[in-house]
Amino acid sequence: MNRTDFNDLNQLEGLQFIPVNDKKVPTVKNWQSAITKYDLSNCWGVGLVCGEPSGNVEVIDVDQKYDPTGTLFDNYKRLIHSVNENLLNKLVVQKTKNGGYHMIYRCSKIEGNIKLANRPTTDAERTDTYDKAYAKEVLDGKGDADAVKIAMKAKDNDKVRVLLETRGLGGQVVCHPTKGYEMVFGDLCSISEITPEERDTLHSIARQFNQVFEEISVPKTAKIEKTKGLSPFDDYDERGDVVALLQSYGWKVVGNKGNKTIFLRPGNTDAASSGNYDHEKGWFSVFTTSTEFEPQKAYKPYAVFAVLECNKDWSAAATKLLEMGYGEKKTPEKKEYQSTRVIQSRINDDENDLSFLATPDDYKDYLQQVREGTLPMGLTTGIPSLDEHFLFKNGNFVMVNGTDNVGKTKVVWYLQLLAAMYHGWHGIVFASENTLGSFMRAMMQFYWGKPLRGHNAMSSSEFDIAKNFVESHFWQIKAQEDLYNYKDILNMIKKVRKKYPQINHAMIDPYNSLKIDLSGFSKLNTHEYHYEALSEMKAYGQQTKFGFFINHHAVTAAARAKDGERKFPVAPHKADTEGGAKVSNKADDFLTIHRITQHPTDWNITEIHVRKIKDTETGGRPTPLEIPVKLEMYKNSCGFFERLEFGGTPVDPVLNWHISQEPKQSKLDLEAKSGLGVSKDGNIDNFYDDKFNLEGDDPFPYIK
What we know:
4 domains; 704 residues; alpha/beta; elongated; DNA Primase, Chain A; 7-stranded mixed β-sheet
């Protein structure tokens, strides 16, 4: 073994060095805390002691030999630079004998050695571990059976490879000028001190490369009420919206990457991201130590709930989830039925009062209308392909579902505008996730097919006409920070209709933004509460010929469903609505809005799946499976037209309405006026198609 004199290093003040052998193992004892000048005159290599003996030195070890791509160090540097462009310049960097890197710095806050990022060991690596262990044991004189046993144990224990880790208190790294180690940037004489915040940035970014997570599980000491069938934790994992839960506690969605939703933690931070929810694996993980979650841990949705809602009290979390309608409580065997609420009958005790029985007068008009062919039909949407399946029907209870960010809101707004244009409908809107101005902007732009500003913006007169039309047909409920419950919304509707009786429908978007208030009920769980709420709203509509459009979120699991080969998200079904079939079955009509937002070419195609039409006699029927009605958005984002897959001339319902309102004007005049047009081959196109290029962008960034 070659020996070298490294004693010159002892002249560097504030740094502690130790001799090491060719296995990188210190050849002296008690080096972790001793501050002394060791003899470095005749040793294989030298190690830099981390921690207090060297003035709080810490090293991030980038182990390139375990990175199959060979890009770990470059990718790590790139991410650091993207967050803090000056931070890399504060680090001393050396290359190791095995092609890895040491990033060296001082900090007032350091800890012991920390594994920041691991990956699973490959089968080939585990086989190699077995072979080496077996060969060693045989060489040491072990019998075959013992050697196999020891080698198999070594293979079983070889589960991870460390990609990035720190060397801090109690640690050391072999350093230059040891043979095979070279300085890349800076030198040991000028190790800079970074702030604790900068150190956290380095660690947080490193954790983003981690591929091995320990799943958080319910402690055995937790007292969990026994349930019948699905547990509240398993049920919440399936139906709970963990993304919305995190957002309600200040976590901000900053983007999506593959199957992951990327989050930024609450509070002040310079980081680009702090964690992510992996929809495919169904868990949440963080990169930073500055939250209530532990880094490199996998939190299933129920665990996120327990941490945020119940301060890690698992027993309390289970109880709360049961109260919210997740899981099934185990009912006592002695009782055949246990009432969950107090129900009062509305039928009086008078034996002679049989007014609840139908008489011929109750249905004679209906029969006469059928025979004469005068049964009132649903009203056109202005979109022929949609009219085959869905029509406007006064007083209907329409539910709409869809996954996040597909455009449910703007499509329902568009349908409401068409109802106002074609049939003079008036509506009241509660859109808690959007501003009052964003509603006005969208509806006014839909009205003319033109933006409020920019290229081909509507004129001042067009602005006034659109604004007056929208304001005269729609009333908005101002959202409050402390959200309303459904009774609040109903009472507001009743009050407004007394002054404006022409209002004939309401939109609630989204339904789950309404506050759950159980104060008026006895022993009512949340499932029963939602059923009661929707029943009461529907009953009011039936009694007063008042319609509802209710937007619902789909369960989180629905967003993870893919279409197979292409692996694009598929449209959720009616049963995928939050609250399940019990909730969705309350609908007279049920629509699913879907859009493949990451499709390279069809991102602007909106699918409308008609899942249910209660009364087909008055028009409409469900769309065939996977054959939805399609609308294509204009590139200026100010309207839709039919997307016809099998030929024919597509229709723009707004343009057609303008034409019907102003018959004296030529079609060309109206096209120029609205900014919309028809190409020479008869296909609708945007009049300024060549002026817009929004592919890949959110067409309505101001609408949630």
